[in-house]
Specification:
115 residues; two-stranded antiparallel ribbon; two-stranded parallel ribbon; 4 strands; elongated
């Protein structure tokens, strides 16, 4: 997961909602032509919708620093206890507001499905 393949000046061919071909624009041939509808994604990114199978959308606080430490192999703080304490101190309105904000941000960033 530490590597990402980037195709620049590329195309993605979709037929009836299914990706059927991906490649470099320079490799397009008569047999690999774009359809009648072409969407230009210049200066953008084309990725599949993301699925988050383990989301705690209603929480308070953040554990971003601990996540980074864990990715780098470093033992990390108090874990979930950090946010459990903050959830207990938050009001229901705060939890609702933050949960809604987190879910909308996830949608904006490409997450299409959460648990």
């Amino acid at each position: 997961m530490g590597k990402l393949t980037v195709l620049e000046d590329a195309y993605v061919k979709i037929v009836k909602g299914v990706i059927v071909d991906v490649g470099s624009m320079s490799d397009l041939t008569r047999s690999r032509t774009l359809s009648e509808q072409t969407l230009d994604a210049r200066r953008g990114v084309v990725i599949p919708g993301l699925v988050d199978p383990h989301t705690h959308a209603v929480f308070s606080g953040s554990r971003e620093d601990e996540f980074l430490a864990r990715c780098q192999g470093t033992p990390y703080g108090q874990g979930i206890l950090t946010t459990v304490e903050r959830v207990r101190k938050a009001t229901e309105d705060e939890l609702y507001r933050d949960g809604k904000r987190f879910l909308l941000e996830m949608l904006h960033l490409g997450t299409t499905t959460v648990e």
